[in-house]
Each structure stands twice: as structure tokens, then as C-alpha cells.
Amino acid sequence: MRQMKGIRLRMIQILLGLLAVILLFPMVQTFLYSFSSMTEMQAFMKTRGSYDETRWMEAHLIPNRVSLLQYHQILIADNTVLRLFLNSVFYALTILLGQAVVIPAMSFGLAKFRFPGRNALFFVIILLMLLPFQVTMVPNVLTLRSMGLLDSVWAIIIPMWFAPFYIFLIRQFMVGLPAELTEAAEMDGAGTLSVYLRIILPVSRPILGAAAALSFAESWNLVEQPLTYLTTRTDLQPLSTMFNQLAAENTGFEFAGATLYILPALFIYLFFQEDILSGIALTELK
Amino acid sequence: MYRKKRLVLPFLLPGLIGIIVFYVAPFFGGVWYSLTDGSFENAFVGLENYSKVWQNPMFQLGLKNTMELSLICAPSLFLLSFLLSLLLNRIRPAGGFFRSSVLLPYLMPSSAVLIIWLLWFDYGGPVNHLITLLGGNRVLWLQGAELRMPVVLLFLWKNLGFCVIIYLAALQAIPVSLYEYAALEGAGFIRQAFSITLPMIVPTAFLVFILSFVNAFRIFKEVYFIGGAYPEEPLYTLQNYMNNMYGKLNYQNVTTAAYIFAGMVFALFGLLFFLQNRAQRGLN
What we know:
The complex is a heterodimer.
Chain A: H1 6-33, H2 38-46, H3 69-77, H4 80-112, H5 118-130, H6 137-146, H7 153-160, H8 164-175, H9 180-187, H10 192-203, H11 205-220, H12 224-229, H13 239-248, H14 254-282
Helix pairs in contact in A: 1-14, 4-7, 4-8, 4-11, 4-13, 5-8, 8-11, 9-10, 11-14, 13-14
Chain B: H1 5-35, H2 48-55, H3 57-91, H4 96-107, H5 110-120, H6 126-133, H7 148-172, H8 176-184, H9 189-200, H10 202-216, H11 220-227, H12 238-247, H13 251-283
Helix pairs in contact in B: 1-13, 2-13, 3-7, 3-10, 3-12, 4-7, 7-10, 10-13, 12-13
């Protein structure tokens, strides 16, 4: 599009800049609060919920005195948060590992092979992608129970290995890859497995990165699955279902907990940011 | 394109088995639950569960709230992300910082952010402070129907970026020459947006619209973080109903409600798909 100059361009930049600051503010505020002492934070959080018309909450942003006590509490003194955090890490990693084996292979099959029922299968995957979790919830509980997986970590992990959204996303990218890419290798007599591993996967790097980051975000924010598949096992719950209860107790270390919870997602984002942007730009999302 | 059917099996089979076991079979298996009474004999009762669930007041409340929340969330997400991506496209390549910060919330865990959210919307908090500075009165954001506002904003905050990025990718694929030609003909910004941009991105807009609804139907997450399993009435969604019925081991009601919901979801997407086809034919 035609580049704009002068005052209108400035105005748009200022508007978007302001919005960006608002969007980032919750994270910044969390980081800042995490360096307050626990007593300071407890006192501040107690000023919430007052209906006194004459008073406002303190406009508190920067800690009165910088303290690492909150971190000491969650990392060393009390392992409740850390244990839940490690549960979440375990879920995110095992889900990602299984998906890495199953999903790109299936996307490749759907994108680059011709076989009967291919379009029907792809249509089913799109339908499943739109389906709310609760529709298949009860029969899934019975399946998982009969396999002896209910109330174990695998009840959460294994169904996620086949998440239809990522099959759709990666397939759409691979469909767009030109045929010439693989033809030379085929002439040389390379088998499909070697074409898949040596050519298709490396050139699909952006969408694989994007899918990995999105899948991580989903696993990091699991709610429905632990609530239904792990009803008797609070010790296996991830941070996502338990964090609120911890935060509601006004322990004084909730912001260090929140920071710990946010940081891995932030690193994943920074690491895969370019992949997400270019992966989506190169994918035929129609 | 490979034609030998045998060759595709090793790639397809693991995924196919999983999809059948954990997605397709449960979808059809659930039908049995919705048609039986759940007693020891598990007698066939036809559509009785459907009429019972349909008349259940909690189901009706959940359905009404889910529809209302989706109709607030999805269209605002759709429009807001379109406008933002238009602005962003105008100032490229300078918009890098904004592009990064708009997508970041999509990866953030909602429950970690929620503490800050509740602080902002406290009765004595910054949002009310701003409102009184602008001459308004304080609002009880964290009670009753007003609680929907923070929930919807949390939803928008989280989902805006992904839609903006999808739009932006489509916008950048439009050839610049089209706009240059339009500008020569004397078409202004608004005229260009509606005569060039919109028709060129109909398929993408359709996708964003669908994704907006898919995500809006999942607003249960945000509701659960704020209100738990039994939130106040204005926030009680269909998923709350289904989860609570599940907790009471009433599998018949869960699956029946789920199929009613799935039927509505598919009807909506079918309608959207039909409209998109019509719109595209109309434009060509």
C-alpha cells in the first residue's frame, strides 16, 4: 500500500504505540510486583474490594524496596508452585514430542499423496477442529478408563497428540510447496521417507515453529482436560487449573508465581516469533 | 504428488488411528448416551433426553449466555482485528514493535494475567479512577452483569493478535499496483478499503470469522478463571452446565447438551460457509 507521510502517519504510530503499551502492561506490572516483599504485597492486595467512595487503591507500581523474598518463597521455601509448574512443563513437552512424530507426517500424507478418501478425511479434520471439547468428552472418559489411562497424565497427553488444528495448519502449508522441490530427489531414487525427512521437514520450518509455539501455548493453558480427566488427582494438575486458587489466598508471593508462569511462554514467543509471522504469511489459510 | 496408495500408509496411519480412537469414535459413541436413560438397564428412550435437557432452566441459561457472549466477542474480535491490521499495514515496515506486542498475549497463560485484571477492575482500581476523572461514576465491575466486561476484554486482549497477524498476511499479498491505480483514479482511503481491500481478503475474513467464533465458544476458560465452576448467572456458560453435569456423573445430560451445542455450531458454520460462497460469487 502507498506509504503515508507526515502527521497522519505519526498519529497512527502514536495510537498503535499506546495500544501496544496497554497490551504489554499486565506482564510488566506482574514483573515489577514480583520484586516487592511479601508483606508489602499482602498489604497492597488487602486494599482491594473496598467500597469506600472517598478512597482509591494506592497507585502502586514500583516496589518500595526491592526484595527477592517472593522468589525465595516459591523456589526454595515452599514447593507448591514449583511442583505445579513442573507438571505443566512435563505436559507441554510430552504433548509436543508426540505431536512432532504424528502431526507433520499426517499433514505430509494429506498434502502430497493421492489416495481414495483423502478429501473426505481432510473435511472430517476440519469439522473436528471446530468441535467444542465437551462433545467428545464423555465417550473419551470411557475410552480412557477402559485403557486404564483415566486419572493419569496420559489421559491428558495422548489425545492431544492428534489435535486436528495443527494437522490442518501444517497441511495447508505443505500443499503450497512446489512439486519441483521433491521431483529432483525422486529422480535420484530417494524414497518417500527420505524426501519427507530431508526436504519437506526442513522447508516447512516456519510453520512447524509456529505450530510448536501455538501448541505450547495451548498446553500451557490447559483447563478442560485436567478438570475432566484428572478429577481425583490434584497432585497431577497443571499450574493452569490451580493458579487461581493459589492467587486467591493472598499469600504475598502470587506475583513471583505469575512471573515464573509467564517466563517460559515469553521465551517460546521470542524464540518462535519470526516463525509464527512468516509461517502464517506463507500458509494457504483459505 | 505421489500416487502409490501403499506409500502413504506409514505417514497417515499413526495419526489416523488416534483421530478415530479419540475424536471420531467418541463422536458417534456419544449418540448412544444421548438416547438412553443411564439406569442399570440403560433402556432406549429415543429423544426424551433432548426434550428434558432443552427444558432444563440451567441449560437454557447456559445456552443463552454462551450465545450472548459469543455474539459480543466474535464480531468485536473480527472487526477490531481488521481495523488494526489496516492501520498496521499502512505504517509498515515501522510497525514491528506493535506487531510483536499484539501477538504476545496469545501465548500468555490467562490465569497469570487475571490477578492484574482483577486489580484494574477493582471498585477502587485504575479503570474506575479513569472513569471518574472523565466525569463518570464508579462501576461495580466484579459483580453481576458488569463482570462480563472484564471477561470480554480479557478475551479480546488474548485473541486479538492472532487475528491481526492472519489479516496482515492477506493484506500484504495484495499487489501494490492495485492501490496505485485506484489512487490515480482518485479513490480515497475509505473507498480503497471497501473496493479493493475487502474483496481481496474475503476468504481470509471468512477464516478469521470462523476462528473468532471457535475461540468465543471456548470463553469458558476465562469464565472458569474468574468465576470457578459456579460463576454468577450472567457468566454461567453452556460449558459450565456440561462440566457440572459431568461432575454429577449425569453422562446422558452432558452428551445430549453437547450434541445440541454441536448441532448449532455446525449449523452456524454451514450458514457462514454458504454466505461466503455467495459473497465471493457476487464480487467476481
